[in-house]
Design goal:
The protein is α/β, with parallel strands linked by helices and about 500 residues long. The protein folds into 2 domains: about 160 residues, 3-Layer(aba) Sandwich (Leucine Aminopeptidase, subunit E, domain 1); about 325 residues, Zn peptidases (Aminopeptidase, 3-Layer(aba) Sandwich). About 35% of the residues lie in helices and about 20% in strands. α12 links the parallel β15 and β16. The mean pLDDT is about 95. The structure holds ligand BES and zinc ion (ZN) (2 copies). The site of ligand BES has 15 residues, from loops.
Length: about 500
Amino acid sequence: MFKVKDGDVLAKRLGAIVVGLFEDDKKPDGIVREIDKKLDGYLVELLAEKQLSSGFKKVYKIHTFGKLESKVIYFVGLGKKAELTFERVREAFAVVSKNLTKDEQVEVAVALDTFLTEEKNNQVFAKALAEAFVLTSYRTETYKQKQAEQKSLEKVVVYTSLDEDAVEEALIVGESFGAGTNFARALVNAPGNYMTPTDLAVKAKEIADRYGMEYSVLEKEEMEKLGMGALLAVAKGSDQPPKMIVLKYRGKEKWENVLSFVGKGLTFDAGGISIKPAANMHEMKMDMGGAASVLGAMEVIGALKPDVNVMAVIPSSENLINGSALKPGDVITSLSGRTIEVRNTDAEGRLILADAVTYAKQLGADYIVDVATLTGAVIVALAGITTGAITNDEDLMEDVLVAAGEAGEYLWRLPNFDPYKEMLRSSDVADLNNSPGREGGSITAGLFIGEFAEDTPWVHLDIAGTAWSKSESVFGPKGGTGAMVRTLATLARNF
Ligand code: BES
Ligand code: ZN
Ligand code: ZN
């Protein structure tokens, strides 16, 4: 999709040109001045009359009527130079890319230099560009008989005087981050009947085949032999067989220092016998959002090939109701040997993740980051804006927070004090209680998983609020967001 060129952006005939405008530039300079000249001073007039604004994220389209090679110029306001961060430029690119898509532009040129501040390492703005263009190109798959026909952007030529190789590299990184996120979005948006545990395993295998990773899956019979009582207990209520999906990416000679991503792959959560209300139950097809984020990150890792060992572990099941479904009050034995009293069958995520975390450790995980649409409580606490985190290891937590910052994703820590852990030991009959009550719900849910990480450094990310958006955003439509794909990928690249 992207190409880098040094040279005159105005000389080439492409459908449209994209130009950034800073508020500080009182008089047009560089390319903007050239455009103004070719348009007989029209641009300066528009700016003076405030018909054209350089306010942040304002987009103006101007037709050139044969005076320039390209037919249209899209100006995008960037606000004040001093305030332009990676995040803000990413948003500005997203807004302009949405306009281009809406107008069905197919080939465009971007005058990257008009977006640059005097800061060093400006090539990261090329990452912002590619990421934003790819993210905004995502369209939700529909199953309507009549599909809406819309042309999409095919070619984006980036004109710049910066080092071509550095810009190209940044574009590739941004493009992969965007593509990995879109991959996760598509998995989350797929209806439950199109995305069963078996389908999820197929998706994981496709990634493995595409990038030469090792793929394996545990079937129900093998789980029984190993004693994965927690995952099996959740799967009992469904006709769909559960899967424990594993992908290994070897970025080092030796299989050591293994960073493991564990993703909740609950392909539909009806709550089980502790059934959920009907109102928004259809949205519970998104309960494999953690698995989707992990697979999206593996997609990025496969494309960019960092020198780190990464292992994805995805426990996958449905949480339904039939005659053999798990019941409140049942006591189950997890792979670790710990027994669990199931007070609420809707607190199933922590059960399947318990076995997945133990299994990841058995497979040699040295660091574990689990990602899960785990609790409604995290939405109450942080809304759909921020992902909630909890940990047993300050250093790994710091690495994850830094990665989230670089990736431009909001992440906040929840407390992990001992009295919260005590709340998990409130069963009279088993080692752990899977649902110790509403209070501190996201904390106890996270720490429940932490019990199984034991002393392996571990961070839990609760994306129940952030994996799904009820409304459109600058970066994409409502529905699956691909939250934490870019954070996980950044963590792996920094590791
Ligand atoms: N999958 C849900 C959590 C969820 C809620 C995800 C809303 C996305 C949006 C999870 O399995 C669940 O049902 N959790 C319960 C736990 C409770 C029973 C202790 C919850 O949050 O209500
Ligand atoms: Zn549930
Ligand atoms: Zn769930």
